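Single-chain item
Fold in token form
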Amino acid sequence: MLRLTTDCNSGCHHCTVADVPADQTRAPREALAELVQARKQGSDELVFMRGEPTLRPDLPALAKAARKVGYRLIQIQTNGRRLCYAPYLDKLLAAGVDYFEVSLFGATAATNDAVSVEQGAFEQTLAGLRLLAERGVQSGGRVGTLVTFAVLRANLHELTAAAELVAELGLSRLQYNFTRPVRVDGAWRREVLARLDEAGPPLRAAMARARELGLWVSTEAVPLCQLDPADRGAAEQARDFAEVRVVDFHQRHESFAQHHRVARPLGPRCPECAVVDRCPTTWRAYQELFGTDELRPLAEPDADVPS
């Protein structure tokens, strides 16, 4: 996972890159050296991380170089806005990009654009997702798309509508991400955050609806005690990150698994839980801001979600 830039063409207040040292960009030669070195060390999947990598003029060239040195999968994390331009999307595909993780912040223009602080962003992202769905069909499934939906106070009422929108677009993969708190200029941006107990009911309803629609639906940073039993298997686990190498501007991790548990510690009562070994828990910063009362141990591996 390689971060190329902190620049972005949206201004989301919840942005989880906001506490990365700002206004940084990796020189093309340095980016190339990083991906070549990682390939030599055994990495065969490459993720260009947020900020917004599609703002980089050299992104297609870097993707092409990554393919040349042997990466079998190249993924871009993006808000999807520049993907609405078919020639640009096709240039990325021709260079070897074959997976896109596209952020969506609302199921309507009003909600999405208020979160992204950019009027017209929703229509651009939607147009990009439509093109990705078309290219996925045309490629026989070789072009993959994951829609990630940030779970925020402002969009809880649209979690189910997001699943319906993804299905309507002809896409099949959706992930609900419980947003990490960020601290900027010495202050936590608390006002944008949803609470776990507040988010739990609409999230469970949305995931049930997603399953009805035939979507592959998953979560990030949502404790298993907040999910229905049918959805707990789709939560990410610390072991999923054991072989992930992260090259950021302010830190590097040869294996992200250890940092993953530091970033998402167990609550005081979590060791009592029957599924503690596979629970992702939630962000350390969230626990420090709001406490751990919302992390409730499950008595049985298949126990019902607490009311």
